[in-house]
Amino acid sequence: MSSPSSDMKAFRELVHQCKSLVVLTGAGVSAESGVPTFRGAGGYWRRWNATDLATPGAFHENPSLVWEFYHYRREVMASKHPNPAHIAIAECEKRFKRSGRKVTVITQNIDGLHKRAGSNRILELHGNLFKTRCLKCGDVAVNVDSPICEALQGRGAPDPGTESALIPEEQLPRCKVGGCGGLVRPHVVWFGECLESSILEEVDQELKNCDLCMLVGTSSVVYPAAGFAPALAARGVPVAEFNMETTWATNQLGFHFHGPAGENVPEALKP
């Protein structure tokens, strides 16, 4: 199998010609914004492996602890900003729209930075830190309150010696739909949960209709997203990978650009 091309000029020509561009993004697109991933050996919050808190069982057993963790993550995100890659993708969407074309972002990230950068066509595979879902009525709502509830004010410090707040359930974030008041949880996909079928249907439709794809900042190990780009390439759709390192999927794709997304993506999407 031949190595993927690193010809930026050739790829930019494809961008200028395409009618429907899909941008698949992972944690790497937000790395230059300083967003922690909580993956790998350093993925601890206090004494817990962060992935152990991102489960339905953990929330059922100790919703106070899990909300402290997610409150911390929300507050950290308040100090982060979209980087040049997010902004270039959003500006490309606006430019395409003016000429009757479209850009769709399909992201594994839950940080909301694509939206803050100005992107509008966003499919969030794993949910969003700044949305909640009621366990009683099922309502999904955007919530950017800081703190999300009074009892979490000043809580969530990540230091290993920090004692848990043990907040009573009735003082944790509650549903704001009139008369409900049910306990809400972060609207994110936890380990052991399935992705939303409605989101997957929209993703499938966009992948069927696109004629160009950019894979930005993802290690291509989490499914089903890891299979999207190789499947497109196998169908003959040009796919470019923008990553700091090569991945198992790299040699199945048409283009590979090594380096920070904040440098390469704006170059690729120049008007």
From TrEMBL:
Q: How is the cofactor bound?
A: Binds 1 zinc ion per subunit.
Q: Which Gene3D superfamilies match?
A: SIR2/SIRT2 'Small Domain, TPP-binding domain
Coiled-coil annotated spans: none
Q: What keywords is this UniProt entry annotated with?
A: Metal-binding, Mitochondrion, NAD, Transferase, Zinc
Q: Which residues bind substrate?
A: Y70, R73
Q: Which residues form the active site?
A: H126 (proton acceptor)
Q: Which reaction does it catalyse?
A: N(6)-succinyl-L-lysyl-[protein] + NAD(+) + H2O = 2''-O-succinyl-ADP-D-ribose + nicotinamide + L-lysyl-[protein]; N(6)-glutaryl-L-lysyl-[protein] + NAD(+) + H2O = 2''-O-glutaryl-ADP-D-ribose + nicotinamide + L-lysyl-[protein]; N(6)-malonyl-L-lysyl-[protein] + NAD(+) + H2O = 2''-O-malonyl-ADP-D-ribose + nicotinamide + L-lysyl-[protein]
By its UniProt entry, which InterPro entries does this protein fall under?
A: DHS-like_NAD/FAD-binding_dom (IPR029035), NAD-dep_sirtuin_deacylases (IPR050134), Sirtuin (IPR003000), Sirtuin_cat_small_dom_sf (IPR026591), Sirtuin_class_III (IPR027546), Ssirtuin_cat_dom (IPR026590)
Instruction: Extract the GO molecular function terms from the UniProt entry.
Output: histone deacetylase activity, NAD-dependent; NAD+ binding; protein-malonyllysine demalonylase activity; protein-succinyllysine desuccinylase activity; zinc ion binding
Summarize where Zn(2+) binds, as residue positions: C134, C137, C175, C180
The answer to keyword Isomerase applying to this record is: no
Where in the cell is the protein located? Mitochondrion
Superkingdom of source: Eukaryota
The entry's NAD(+)-binding residues are 26-45, 108-111, 217-219, 243-245, 261
Enzyme Commission number(s) of this protein: 2.3.1.-
The record's Gene Ontology cellular component field reads: mitochondrion; nucleus
Q: Cite the Pfam families for this sequence.
A: SIR2 (PF02146)
Q: Which residue numbers delimit the Deacetylase sirtuin-type domain?
A: 1-271
Cofactor(s) recorded for this entry are: Zn(2+)
General function of this protein: NAD-dependent lysine demalonylase, desuccinylase and deglutarylase that specifically removes malonyl, succinyl and glutaryl groups on target proteins. Has weak NAD-dependent protein deacetylase activity; however this activity may not be physiologically relevant in vivo.
What does the domain comment read?
Answer: In contrast to class I sirtuins, class III sirtuins have only weak deacetylase activity. Difference in substrate specificity is probably due to a larger hydrophobic pocket with 2 residues (Tyr-70 and Arg-73) that bind to malonylated and succinylated substrates and define the specificity.
Similarity comment: family membership: Belongs to the sirtuin family. Class III subfamily.
Q: What is this protein called?
A: NAD-dependent protein deacylase
Species whose genome carries this gene: Bugula neritina (Brown bryozoan)
Please name the taxonomic classification of the source. Eukaryota, Metazoa, Spiralia, Lophotrochozoa, Bryozoa
